[in-house]
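pipeline/complex-builder :: batch 7 item 3
reading input block
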Amino acid sequence: MTKFFWILLLICCVLPISVLAQDDPPMEEEDEDSFVDYSNMVQTLENKAFASSRIIGQVPIKVFSLGYDFQTAHTLEPEPFGNGVASPENEINSAQGIRFGINYPVYSKNSFLLNLGLNYAETNYSFSSLTPATSNPLPQALDNNGLRTLGFTATAFKPFNEKRFLILQLGANLNGDYSFSDMQSLKYTRYSGAAIYGIKPNDRKMWGLGVSRTYLGGSLNYLPVYYMMYTAPSKNWGLEMLLPARFQYRRNLNAKNLLLAGWEIEGNTYRISNDDNIYNLPFNDMELRRSELRLRITWEHAITPQIWFSAQAGYRYNWSFDLDRGDFFRPFGDDTPFLAENNLGNPAYFNFSINWVSP
Amino acid sequence: MTKLLKLTVIAVLFAVTTAFNADTDKDAGAIVGVWMPSEGTAYVKIFKEKGKEVYHGKIVWLKVPNDEAGNPRKDPNGKEILNMLNLRDFVYEDDEWVDGTIYDPKSGNTYYSTIEMVNEDKLEVRGSLDPFGLVGRTDTWVRMKTK
């Protein structure tokens, strides 16, 4: 924990920039303002205008983020495989873990923007009653190592002119019950992506439609997506959404405080390792289809213009916590049976993070 | 003879120094003028501060000078955007204008900034969160002239 304290301290102290006073303007060497009609000027060169990737009033982009996620007590009722004997409910005291993210603009010009990101999230389960691994080893696997996600993302924003743009996103994630001392093979990397074509009519609104290859529902799926960012003319409120993954209503309380209400769906497929046949099963390709809906309220607060604190509270509703074998396309409505359909309880959750933002 | 040599050396050094300074002044002053950022919604006049080798810029024209209510447009801090000083304290060094800051009147935030001149009519203005320019965005500005 001491290590994290120092990291937090470092972030808080990192390179603050002073806000300049606008008083006492410097004198110009030659003041010719009174002789120039600026409205009658022309460009010496063609400078094509491009839509920017942001709107006024939106939640600041998190360049660096370090957070902690905590779910309160809930239950896990694993379904037995085949003709196995049903296990009683397992009591989970808490599920918690660190979350870390970098979203770095490696190329950022008005005509093209490329961000590369690195994300890490872990969920460590603390069981108060853990039934022995009989015919479903999931509780044992969660108790041993928890779940981890290590991901890489590349996001490109390409404006074609001042109103039209394209967003491309690629993601590669290594998900599973691995530990850093016993790393999962890269062959279990799962790839996702999205392409959105959009319009930005003005500085307060941008929207787009696209398609995505996603693990939002736990299994691989292909979904249409709708993207919209909006700030009302009063600049007091707005909407930010990437449906169906997330939606939030934004209330701009003032320049330093934002209040958000909405949802986010988090989903992925996690390899559950049976290396060395530790669970005495005739296969080693189990994957946990994890998908959860997070209904939440978030408070975003600017400690300095670049350092923001985020506090979130909400309800974590389980959509899928089922076991499958291998990675395959499973559209909505697909009736291919799961290896096991597990029941996971729905707890309250809290999330805190400190962020270095690009306002 | 020695005196003549000394005078010659001093004269040559003076001439070289003067020529160098004149050239530096000319390069540094090339940034002075009226420029349009890529969004095309404003013009910024860059000028040299009186009596100093420091450059600033102010917003001298707005495509939409008034808000929906017909009042002059203001930044989030309530200050009028027109005639606002948004570039500050740039000094010329190694073919770039550095150590300055740029103020974004849309967000109300100030960023570290450097300016590079691509050619006499085009600037690349970079605003960044850090003084090293690692995390930031570069915008292309073009020079404006009277018709």
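note: The first helix of chain A runs from residue 2 to 13.
queue -> next item
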